[in-house]
Amino acid sequence: MTHVFTIAIDGPAGAGKGTLARRLADHYRLNLLDTGLTYRAVAYALIQHALPLDNVSAAETAARQVDMAKLDRAVLSAHAVGEAASKVAVYPTVRRILVEKQRDFAKTPPGAVLDGRDIGTVVCPDADIKLYVTASTEVRARRRLAEIESIGGTADFAEILADIVRRDERDMGRADSPLKPATDAHLLDTSEMAIEAAFLAAMAVIDDVLAKRDKA
Ligand code: C5P
To answer: What string of DSSP letters covers the chain?
Structure first.
């Protein structure tokens, strides 16, 4: 059987894991899945149908209908959709449906880089590499503000910071699959690190694992 290679990347919003995942998928020629988009797609479907986010059975239906080939980042990236996603993400039945789709994606050769909150702990506990990417809340808020300003928008730093703290609390505090590093994850704190440095650090970890495997 061909070995399917899996890189699991977890961490809070704004730590840089999305960019890192894209760079690693490019470099190692692996498929890429931003699992946050699957939760966003569920939230977006509910919003589109003017359904409350606590309508669990509608959320389950929306989760079943998520088409992994049609996750549209442009539509799903809105900040409000991210907030709503973290609310539907607390429902275990919704998670189970999406996790199954994410696992199927991961199994497709040659393998994949998946980023999210529970990849190393729940979705792919046997991943070849697990990275936990984090950064201080202040740094993440500063990055988000810079991102908004770079596209001509304006925002209030204190509000962004409060938003990030709230989202972290929801993601780390939920009962099912809370955000936390897997016990065997490599920690990467990007607070003082540019994305290029984070990429090089991640590559060093991965190349080390690959070299040991070649020798075995
Ligand atoms: O990463 P992103 O901001 O797109 O994720 C949106 C929300 O989806 C997160 O705040 C989190 O609540 C949820 N999520 C999750 N598990 C994942 C990925 C995202 O619960 N694997």
So the answer is: -PPPEEEEEE--TTSSHHHHHHHHHHHHT-EEEETHHHHHHHHHHHHHTT--TT-HHHHHHHHHT--GGG--HHHHT-HHHHHHHHHHTT-HHHHHHHHHHHHHHHHSTTEEEEEESSIIIII-TT-SEEEEEE--HHHHHHHHHHHHHHTT----HHHHHHHHHHHHHHHHH-SSS-S---TTPEEEE-TT--HHHHHHHHHHHHHHHHHHHHH-
